[in-house]
């Protein structure tokens, strides 16, 4: 009885092993058209008799299915699966190249070309393929070709000894020059390979651009068409400053900058800052009017004398350095010097104005001109002319005093708005101008603002006084 039980257990275990190994023996099933030949890891497995074939396989492995007249199927498998194979009819690519000795690569693989007639016929999978042709002395040509299933496509490739240069530009640019040719951009031209210089009108940031054209059938170059535009900044107070991209400009000004977005800060002593943003896509003007931190109103002192700040009587002035001239009711100058606009009484000092190459000694201190000194009334000073030997002269100062010579008189020039100043047609600076040295006599004084002449006059500069000239309206 026991022996029969043991025999029964052994038989059950044997059937279990047979079932287990039976599953492993048919771990890969391939469905394919009848007559297809199946290979696994380059070993022939068999021919599909009906619609499938099953066999034991090790993973990973490469499955290949072929049938005469169809494109082979190939796939790498990593696990036991059921694979359905749909074989497609082949596509063909008929090539013809010029010159006939050109080398042709399809997807990086060199193909055989009949050098007698420059042709090749290729069986090829459907899809997109990269074709490259090259020959000595010709530009290499690369193109992509799409082949449909079952399609037979003819492709003719003709290599050139020149390069098709495509100059791409975001803007239309006239009168550009490349290799001595006048062209308009964007443009497509035929050139020989090599280095070229592209010249653009000087309104562009990169008016000269170097291009190296490789020996290809077609080469695309993107032209830098960043343009330059004028930015004009003007307003009140004159002599303020603008901060733009890390640089500081004295105002008013007109500057040329590449088109871009700019953050601008305008500032001046004793005024609140003004900030703005500019999209510079064309010539642009900015006008500003800074708000003073502190203003004073002072037109007279001691109710008897009129005050001029930088040449003009002003209702209100910002607290800052001004060249201040005080006159009596008859228009005679009784005092001048620099003040902050807050004078309430006539200063007790006496001004001494010293011209260029003049030396003044007050006590043991030496001063060289051009400059202005303030001393007490009755002060004795020693004066020298640096251009002449033994020119020492002692002077007692009682009122406003100018120490100059006929060829070195002193001039101040003012305007309400900042102007460029030309003295006898030579630029001498922007207003206000203090202690300009010139010769006595008549001169032409010209005021220019924003490139336009706004005033011109003949003035008479005299020795022994401070000559103050203003823009006439």
Describe the structure.
This protein has 473 residues and is mainly β. The protein has seven domains: 26-84, no CATH class; 91-158, Sandwich (Immunoglobulin-like), CATH 2.60.40.1120; 163-222, no CATH class; 228-289, Immunoglobulin-like (Sandwich); 295-339, no CATH class; 349-403, no CATH class; 409-470, Immunoglobulin-like. It contains one helix and 48 strands. The strands form 14 sheets. A four-stranded antiparallel β-sheet has the order 3-2-5-6, with no helix packed on it. A hairpin with a 6-residue loop joins strand 5 (61-66) and strand 6. The longest helix has 24 residues, at 2-25. It starts with a helix and ends with a strand.
Q: From the 3D coordinates, which CATH architecture of the largest domain would you assign?
A: Sandwich
Percent strand: over 45%
The CATH fourth-level homologous superfamily of the largest domain: Carboxypeptidase-like, regulatory domain
Q: List the domain count as a whole number.
A: 7
- At the fold tier of CATH, the topology name of the largest domain is Immunoglobulin-like
In the CATH hierarchy, what is the class of the largest domain?
Mainly Beta
Strands of the biggest beta sheet: in what spatial order?
3-2-5-6
Helicity, in percent? under 10%
Spans where pLDDT lies below 50 across 5 or more residues: 13-25
